[in-house]
Amino acid sequence: MLRHYLDDFLGGLDFQAKRVLEIGPASGLLTFEMERRGASVVSVEIPSDHIYDVIPYPETYEKWLRANWAGWTPLTNSWWFAHEHFRSNAKVAYICAYDLDRYDLGRFDICVISNMLLHNRDPLKILANCANITDGTCVVIDIVDSLLEQSDLPLLRFMPEPSPNPEGENWNQWWRLSSQCVRNALSVLGFRQRSEITRFRPMWNGIPIDSFRVRADR
């Protein structure tokens, strides 16, 4: 269903002849759409031996680590299946986004980070790493937290509860970030030429998810 919202995710950017850094491509929905629109894409995905940022509840930490390792291969295979199907030239680098500064991926015109920061213990480290190698535009998509959006302050909300929720514990969402928080962080990192916040509501598994997109230019 996300295919119907690609323009909302990508923000009307001109991808023609642009070099794009994508963080967390999953099955490659945005990877191959950006390439179709003229981009040369390098996607960054966690390697198979990476210790995922699972919420460290003592009772269930090992369980969810094993579940993530089990899910890594089918998710990765889906990217490569689409890569072959579309005869893509997109590249993928299996490195942790926390460690981008340790690798020479080159410079990029655009960086796209979609629904990924909330899953990481240190989202600002990832933003900083991406900013260091992006010369033009950064696009961040994330989930709207209505409580945070009531304020003009740049806020984050810590999502894990003191103990696992028996109704369905949160094992992989560390934060909700306000759109103003993302915009301010990008401004601090040098993206001050232009910035805009857009709301949209894509369908995920039949459920509408209030989302925001922050686009900021150097």
Q: Name the CATH homologous superfamily.
A: Vaccinia Virus protein VP39
* Secondary-structure element pattern, one letter each: HEHEHEEHEHEEHEEEE
Percent strand equals 25-35%
CA radius of gyration is 17 Å
Instruction: Quote the average pLDDT.
Output: 93
Residues in helices, as a percent range: 25-40%
Would you state the CATH class? Alpha Beta
Largest sheet: 7 strands, mixed
Number of domains: 1
Morphology call: globular
Q: From the helix content, strand content and strand pairing, which structural class follows?
A: alpha/beta
Largest sheet strand order: 3-2-1-4-5-11-8
- Per DSSP E runs of 2 or more residues, the count of β-strands stands at 11
How many DSSP H or I helices?
6
By CATH, the architecture is named: 3-Layer(aba) Sandwich
Q: Can you tell me the CATH topology?
A: Rossmann fold
End-to-end distance = 32 Å
Poorly predicted tracts of residues: none
